Automatic annotation (TrEMBL):
<keyword id="KW-0966">Cell projection</keyword>
<keyword id="KW-0677">Repeat</keyword>
<dbReference type="InterPro" id="IPR003409">
    <property type="entry name" value="MORN"/>
</dbReference>
<dbReference type="InterPro" id="IPR042814">
    <property type="entry name" value="Morn5"/>
</dbReference>
<feature type="region of interest" description="Disordered">
    <location>
        <begin position="1"/>
        <end position="20"/>
    </location>
</feature>
<feature type="compositionally biased region" description="Basic and acidic residues">
    <location>
        <begin position="10"/>
        <end position="20"/>
    </location>
</feature>
<dbReference type="GO" id="GO:0031514">
    <property type="term" value="C:motile cilium"/>
</dbReference>
<keyword id="KW-0282">Flagellum</keyword>
<keyword id="KW-0969">Cilium</keyword>
<dbReference type="Pfam" id="PF02493">
    <property type="entry name" value="MORN"/>
</dbReference>
<protein>
    <recommendedName>
        <fullName>MORN repeat-containing protein 5</fullName>
    </recommendedName>
</protein>
């Protein structure tokens, strides 16, 4: 898992991503959690630039058990509704 423009801060083993760490993709999406042999493996969270989060248990780079998926909150202020007159 080595993309041009990506970065990694964390534990390694034999020159590969292995252990706890933080992997940032060129898109600014960030994975924070456990890795093994260069892949997401164990508990980890994907943080997206728009504020969304995808928390899962990973096995060999694949999300196997999703714990939560949080979307960003967009508040919309609506004007109060006026009562509809009865006929």
């Amino acid at each position: 898992m080595d993309l041009i423009g990506s970065s990694y801060k964390g534990e390694t083993k034999n020159g590969r991503i292995d252990g706890k760490g933080e992997y940032t993709f060129p898109t600014e999406t960030k994975y924070v959690g456990d890795t093994k042999d260069g892949m997401f493996h164990g508990k980890g969270v994907l943080h997206f630039p728009n504020g969304s989060k995808y928390e899962a248990t990973w096995e060999n780079g694949i999300a196997k058990q999703v714990r939560s998926c949080i979307l960003p909150c967009t508040c919309i202020r609506a004007s109060p509704r006026k009562p509809t007159p009865s006929p």
